[in-house]
Specification:
The chain has helices at residues 16-29, 60-71, 79-84, 90-95, 113-121, and strands spanning 2-7, 33-39, 75-78, 107-110, 124-128. Helices cover 36% and strands 20% of the residues. The protein has 130 residues and is an alpha/beta fold. The two termini are 24 Å apart. It is globular and about 45 Å long.
Length: 130
């Protein structure tokens, strides 16, 4: 089965990101295809490389990045939600006159069209968070 996933909550204020990660990992282990993972609303905070969790806590951002690298996953961050929350890749930082970027490896910024495409291409779109 081809799946798409949407995550609407940040990595540490809600269970959604952890649940989505565990779901994606289990789906991959069962042989399902993950077409795309789309981060929307506060979910874009899963993509900031500036997160520094305590040493005895899980690093949600790094887990997503590593999973994307291991399975060649398409992790897409909504551009409008990202800009509202100060999350920028190198291109968006330059385009908006900012001096730094903060997106972690494995994520990319794009628009809602990527979510629409994921919903069309996948057999199921699974949403985590409000």
């Amino acid at each position: 089965m081809k799946l798409a996933v949407m995550i609407n909550e940040g990595p540490y204020q809600h269970q959604s990101s952890d649940s989505a990660y565990n779901f994606v990992k289990a789906a991959l282990d069962k042989g399902h295809e993950i077409f795309r993972i789309f981060f929307y609303h506060d979910g874009v905070n899963n993509a900031t490389r500036l997160t520094i969790p305590p040493q005895d806590d899980r690093n949600v951002v790094e887990r997503w990045s590593a999973l994307a690298k291991e399975h060649n996953l398409d992790l897409v961050v909504c551009i409008a939600a990202a800009q509202r929350r100060g999350l920028l890749d190198e291109n968006e930082a330059k385009r908006n006159g900012k001096t730094a970027d903060n997106i972690v490896e494995g994520f990319r910024i794009s628009g809602l069209g990527q979510l629409i495409e994921a919903g069309i291409q996948a057999d199921r779109l699974v949403v985590f968070g409000d």
